Automatic annotation (TrEMBL):
This is GH16 domain-containing protein. Belongs to the glycosyl hydrolase 16 family. InterPro entries: Beta-glucanase-like, ConA-like_dom_sf, DUF2264_N, UCP014753. SUPFAM superfamilies: Concanavalin A-like lectins/glucanases (SSF49899). It comes from the Bacteria. GO terms for biological process: carbohydrate metabolic process. Pfam families: DUF2264, Glyco_hydro_16. Residues 402-647 form the GH16 domain. GO terms for molecular function: hydrolase activity, hydrolyzing O-glycosyl compounds.
Amino acid sequence: MLSAIVNAQQVSSIDSNGAEARAYFVSTLTKIAHPVLNALSNNRLKLDMPVETAPNAYGDRDKVTYLEAFGRTLSGMAPWLELGADATEEGKLREQYIQMALKCIDNATNPQAADYMNFTNGGQPLVDAAFFAEALIRAPRQLWDPLEPRVKQNVLTALKSTRSISPAYMNWLLFTGMIEAAILKFDAAGQADMVRLEYALNKHNEWYLGDGVYGDGADFHYDYYNSFVIQPMILDILLVLKDKKQALKGWRYKSDYIDGYSKFLERSRRYAGIQERLISPEGTYPAVGRSLAYRVGAFQALSQMALLQELPQDVNPAQVRCALYAIIKKQMEAPGTFDANGWLTLGFYGHQPEIAEGYISTGSLYLCTTAFLALGLPQQTAFWAAPSVPYTQQQIWGDKKAPIDHAFYPDNAKHNPVWQTVTDSTSFGSDKLFKKQWNNFYPWGTDHNGSARMYKSQIILKDNVLQLKATKVKKAEGKSKLDPHLDIKYQSGAVHAKHQVTVSNEYPVYKISGEFKAPTAAGTWPAFWLTAVNGWPPETDILEFKGDATNWQNTFITPQNCTTIKTTLDDALEQWHTYTAILKRIDDEHTSITYYIDDEKKGEHYTNFTNKPLWLIINLQMEGSSGEKGPDAETNFYAKNVSIKRIKAQ
């Protein structure tokens, strides 16, 4: 009977499915954030937000609490907003909050606005300017790009003004580093103070203690600051540096922090594994250390690693969803968590002002939004789409297999799989090698969904490079045989691999990779993609440019269910870039697909592709989705070192 009660309690705290969990995350996040963003967007935050302080408050909290509320709320909400608007109800809701957030940014940084924030008076503004900067870094397309030039200048001026504040010799160094990272990313004049950024990273690297944990300064503190600040800010700063690697190719610390990014990622991965294990079957966790009034913000690091799709290999993303759902539901639904007007109150479980330190006030509490970072993942990812499963403590206390834990040692984290090569990178070296591993055209013939028809004469092999050439037709050739039956205006080239890619129990992992120079002019449509042997979909596009410099990495589950990762490559035709997809079996139905460009992970999608054979195709199609008018001049698409590899199950 006792076992039945325990199991019933555990089942009740697991979300019923990913779609319902996502809806709950969205509704809870917007419930928390709405009072802040609604008030600030109307220049009423200082009028409407109550300022509750701890019994032992100090330092004029009413001078700093508003920037706390704004910076922290936006930092947690940013990844969700970065998904942008779409036709779904969630997408329409996002659009409302994006527009609200843009108004908030204007009001917070406009010296003439009633809600202009304090960025310089006291020490605390350094902290929350950093959270504001982190929000911009997490959502550049939605929170930075649409800003008017006037507002962008105000933001940069506000961030730079915090340089007058001297940081404490602890995690506060990362606040200076985060602000400089934002300036590095967004200031066209390139006026970032790299010494402030370098010092933050160098000291925290020095303060690393082992097993995925940093000291807060030189000492170890048994609290959640590795999650509140340290791990997330280190990674977000490093991601900016990686993004700027071309501009920083001569930087003194490039090998430490750009080339060495994986070292810090591995540490955060271990810490995320520890965090997941802290969540009890009932959705509680240890109330230890300072700043407990930040509530579920204690699990920002876990949510961030879920967002980055970099969880430990033995941790199912769906179990992290279930674990985060459990703590959010337990803590944020406690009576007294919100006041009558929807503002957060001081406390850990409900209203408990006595648990708040003297530096905590109403605005501080909005760090809890950072537990929702995983909302930045699209629906068609394992975090949201995979079936619910018990998280670690539910497994341990629920008569299930108890997963073992162990300390993290960098050398033990390295794993070199044994790949079988089925289509090798030398196959474009000669006609003989090509014919052994490739066929001309599409698997179904010469026509597809654009205005180009494929011809053998347009397929050229030279110096181990495949060249597909598109030229205007000299006389009418009629229409394409396939939908949408466009007029044939070009002769071009396509090839497909003879090997069919099938993720199965026998071959659970495939890696498809190649180097390409891809045209990006209007009306050009190069692609490197997998599509179903039997019917359509499935489809996965590893490279697809549609008339501009944006690469689309798409996963089609159904014609309507398509998830996309977009990456801008301004030199896609001028420079060789490597495009890769790794397909990994999850179970007899589901396969994950992880996309990379130049060995940098771009994202991971959750599919139903297991046991479904796929063709690998390289083609240069024209017009169609890439624009109605293609170029008159010759267009070329180049490929080299294309390979298909797989791992045989042991």
